[in-house]
Amino acid sequence: MLAKSLVIFTGVGLIAGLIFGIYLIDIKNTGQLVFVDGNSISIVTEKSDFKLGEEIKIKIINSGTTSLIFSDTSHVLRITGLSGILMYTPDPHTLSTLEPGDEISFSWDQIKNDGDTALEGLYKLSTSAMDSSGNVVEKSITITIWK
């Protein structure tokens, strides 16, 4: 027969592990896409953790109810290290306006602008646009590249 304290401690450990696991799932699910009334822009990837060399598919979505204007179409998407050093920007886009619900898709093969392969670590994906009144709308998310 098992000792009473062993059963109690094992039961508490299982319950604590379950609660902590649910908490971590909620933390990791950042809800990248939320539609709102007004100005909003979202950056969506299929996941937040990627293997080294894996293709990263990125969508920039106008998740608001107003049109957004990109003042500099060459920097619709910026990928930087957490220190802010620019790693990658896609080729200039001809798109200058993003209507509500519209999206732009990008694919990053983890090759930086200088031709080097991205190293494992944390990367920040960011975008910014303006509404018709000149208000800036920005969004950024963080992804992780693992070995």
State the CATH class of the largest domain: Mainly Beta
SSE order in H/E notation?
HEEEEEEEEEE
The structural class is alpha+beta
Number of strands: 10
* Percent range for β-strand residues: 35-45%
Task: List descriptors.
2 domains, 36% strand, single chain, Immunoglobulin-like, 147 residues, alpha+beta, 5-stranded mixed sheet, 3-stranded antiparallel sheet, 10 strands
Secondary-structure blueprint:
Blueprint: H1 4-28, E1 41-45, E2 49-51, E3 56-62, E4 68-69, E5 78-81, E6 86-88, E7 97-98, E8 103-108, E9 121-130, E10 136-146
Parallel strand pairs: 2-10
Antiparallel strand pairs: 1-3, 3-8, 4-7, 5-6, 5-9, 9-10
Can you tell me about this structure?
This protein has 147 residues and is α+β, with helices and mostly antiparallel strands. Helices cover 17% and strands 36% of the residues. The protein has one helix spanning 4-28, and strands spanning 41-45, 49-51, 56-62, 68-69, 78-81, 86-88, 97-98, 103-108, 121-130, 136-146. The strands form 3 sheets. A 5-stranded mixed β-sheet has the order 2-10-9-5-6, with no helix packed on it. The model has no long low-confidence stretch (mean pLDDT 87).
